[in-house]
Amino acid sequence: MPAQTVEKWDIFEAAFEGPSEGNPYLDVAFDAVFRHKAREIRVPGFYDGEGTYRLRFMPETEGDWTFETRSKTPALNGKTGSFSVTAPSEGNHGPVRVRNKFHFAYADGKPFLSFGTTCYAWTHQPLEEQEKTLETLAKTGFNKIRMGVFPKDYPYNTNEALHDVYEVVNGKRDFDKPNYDSFRHFETQIGRLRDLGIEADVIMFHPYDRWGYCDMSEEQDYRFVAYIAARFAAYRNLWWALANEYDFMIDTKPMERWDRFFQILEEDDPYRHLKSIHNGHADANYDHRKPWVSHTCIQNPNVKNTQVWRNTWGKPVINDEPEYEGDIIQCWGNLTPEELTHRFWITMMRGGYAGHGETYSHPDDLLWWAKGGVLHGEAWKRIAFLRQVLEEDVQNGFEPIGPENLWPWHRISGAKDGDTTIIYFGEHQPVIWTLGLPKVDGNYQLDLIDVWNMTITPLEKVKAPENHPIRHGEIMRPREPDAAFAVELPRRPYLAVRCRKLS
Amino acid sequence: MPAQTVEKWDIFEAAFEGPSEGNPYLDVAFDAVFRHKAREIRVPGFYDGEGTYRLRFMPETEGDWTFETRSKTPALNGKTGSFSVTAPSEGNHGPVRVRNKFHFAYADGKPFLSFGTTCYAWTHQPLEEQEKTLETLAKTGFNKIRMGVFPKDYPYNTNEALHDVYEVVNGKRDFDKPNYDSFRHFETQIGRLRDLGIEADVIMFHPYDRWGYCDMSEEQDYRFVAYIAARFAAYRNLWWALANEYDFMIDTKPMERWDRFFQILEEDDPYRHLKSIHNGHADANYDHRKPWVSHTCIQNPNVKNTQVWRNTWGKPVINDEPEYEGDIIQCWGNLTPEELTHRFWITMMRGGYAGHGETYSHPDDLLWWAKGGVLHGEAWKRIAFLRQVLEEDVQNGFEPIGPENLWPWHRISGAKDGDTTIIYFGEHQPVIWTLGLPKVDGNYQLDLIDVWNMTITPLEKVKAPENHPIRHGEIMRPREPDAAFAVELPRRPYLAVRCRKLS
């Protein structure tokens, strides 16, 4: 039995000394074959500077494993080793996968309801700010964060990055020479997020650039993608986000290149982490039906269209930017907290997943959405409450009651999972309600959820109003459904009703 | 010079005795040719019961007119008369027409900003209720009302109508025998609305019926349309609404029949009053591009799509039902007043016109949207305020700043007319703003409009934030426009900024 052990879905790492002369990043290739019983998995290795080469592997099966390296470089060829994979420890649920077509779960089967936030450039801020970000994240209910490998140049983001991502040679970045410290730091933070139970949705490319990262050559782009695949893929909490707003770079990175990025990940990420790509303009979505896309990422404020997006692409929908809470001049970043909370509820109650961002102006330009730090807003608390509400009942994923183009589900949002139905009224304030409630009476627990005040209070069944006869056009119009009972509600916005069937 | 005078756009009426035996409604036809100088206008007449036949004519040209009747019925043939048309009196602006492609104006050129409400069956309620409705309307800012010729059978509308619209013979309605009292009463109320400055948007057909009106034969339908055209068209405040929710009747009244209704109006309404038709399902719009449709009527809660509807049909858009303020179980009738006010502002700031309805539950089922009476809500006051704000500046009609799919106008709503720009933020709460404000400095009056609290307060110009350089994707992305100045705003929802250029 091998001496070294690693737990399932954790990282096995091996390092090798090899050539440091020339440019190993360009010139030296090596990979390894990992074997368990009859299984063989090809795992690319990567150069980590100063003559050190590394292999990282995330085992998904318990038991004994061996590996053997392959390279044209003799020092990196034929290296072997073995290790034993133990059961995962508590809190290690493995990577997140698509489950039930429109939903997610960890590899161990635990449902994953995506509650993401965005701090595009948090790993490029001073270290003490990064500590604050992690402290804040530990207090929130977010379980995913969007973050860029490259730093950000944008309003409120004019400071220099903590690290250059590539070496600066004679005052110019050399995109053939990674700054290994920068990648080391980035993956350290991926690991710290993992330890907080947070998925790292790693954005590869974005247009908000003054350093030239955005204008690397095609070859440099491909090498970058392969490099971070080899380097980061063994982190179980990793998601691949090919771009923030890829369409704003389509002038220099054509569609074929984006397709190829996906293909490189298919080749070099043996674990097939979740992969998606995010648009800028609402009408410039990538074709998420392509086979290498695991889920749909979009930005779109029209959250009542969530089912349309599900139907269009047939995959889970994450609306990363249903606009952000804040008060800045940029029109995507000045929603009231009530409205962002509302959009989260609508999205989740229509079978999708929404993303958070916060952009309150700050005297030192410390805005959460890019730099992290601390939160100043109000929506994040309600989002944590929503997560808690849904996680109490989730089994397969909340599916919209729908159909979304028929009464009342074109106006009201509601979803079911197992024996639990939740109906979210939002801007609607009926004082009595039946639709979506059970058609056969039984033992039900009924609760009123105040999504803003974060309270849950019991509701009583009352007699359902009688159906008014429809004497004309019966086929054409949905009648008031026969519900076994009704609930009475206070007349105010931002309420939901939860109905649980008790055994 | 003729002894009889009538003012321009008022009603000239002449009555004739004719046969009362048999069924004159079916058997007797007559019309007249009205002449002024070289003009000849054919005007259909109508039977008004008890041997009385009437001709109604709305003259649109001042001066001397004559007419001569034509009929196969000798008593109604060759009758002549003359009258003189005088200038319109104050408050008489003539009928409303389409102007500037997406807008309306009275015939005298005064802009008409449509601020409609809905009381489907108000003329079918007890007379004292009808008086209340008129008293209420006199206090509001509504200048259009949707109302049905036929009574309504629907939840909260189970009472009997004031009049049968057709005679009841042996316990059964005979749709070949109009109840002339019913039509007389209806047109009296059209006239009273006219005297309040309110357009009567007369709904011909609707599916909410228990009396059989909805199931008249094709021939009876056509005769009904021709009859009310002959009878009502001379009212200058008349609009033709072919249906409320025509698609819920498409099983018995196919599309060809709806087209034919429009054609009958084209033939029998010599003044070409505004004509439209209103859908039930959001995806069942009539093809408003058809030449006989003057403007687009829809019901749709997604008011940020207003420009899409303008572009689709190329005509003024009236969204009669962006959902209603209220608290009833029906999902279209339980918006908060804040939300309905918000949807009005968005619609108007995107170049459309919204419609009001109010459906608060009431112990005696007296809901404004169907029965009229009194208003219980809050939105109507804010809608009157919006009308007042826009009428202060309207010249050609408020056109969206747009384009609606580009930053920031896909998220923020704003419109211009003449030298006035209004930007409505709604659910957005920026503390500083530039977009849509003038690019060249000058003498501007700047105001903050609180659309809910109905206040207007002056704003100061402040220095515009500097543009952050866009270093990549410049073609693809709208940059922050160079505005000459900015305004600072309080951080709260439901605000608008008005900018007027002063000479």
From TrEMBL, chains A, B:
<feature type="domain" description="Apiosidase-like catalytic">
    <location>
        <begin position="100"/>
        <end position="369"/>
    </location>
</feature>
<dbReference type="Pfam" id="PF16586">
    <property type="entry name" value="DUF5060"/>
</dbReference>
<dbReference type="InterPro" id="IPR017853">
    <property type="entry name" value="GH"/>
</dbReference>
<dbReference type="InterPro" id="IPR025277">
    <property type="entry name" value="Apiosidase-like_cat_dom"/>
</dbReference>
<dbReference type="InterPro" id="IPR013783">
    <property type="entry name" value="Ig-like_fold"/>
</dbReference>
<feature type="domain" description="DUF5605">
    <location>
        <begin position="409"/>
        <end position="499"/>
    </location>
</feature>
<dbReference type="Pfam" id="PF13204">
    <property type="entry name" value="Apiosidase"/>
</dbReference>
<dbReference type="InterPro" id="IPR041239">
    <property type="entry name" value="DUF5605"/>
</dbReference>
<dbReference type="Pfam" id="PF18310">
    <property type="entry name" value="DUF5605"/>
</dbReference>
<dbReference type="InterPro" id="IPR032260">
    <property type="entry name" value="DUF5060"/>
</dbReference>
<protein>
    <recommendedName>
        <fullName>DUF5060 domain-containing protein</fullName>
    </recommendedName>
</protein>
<feature type="domain" description="DUF5060">
    <location>
        <begin position="5"/>
        <end position="71"/>
    </location>
</feature>
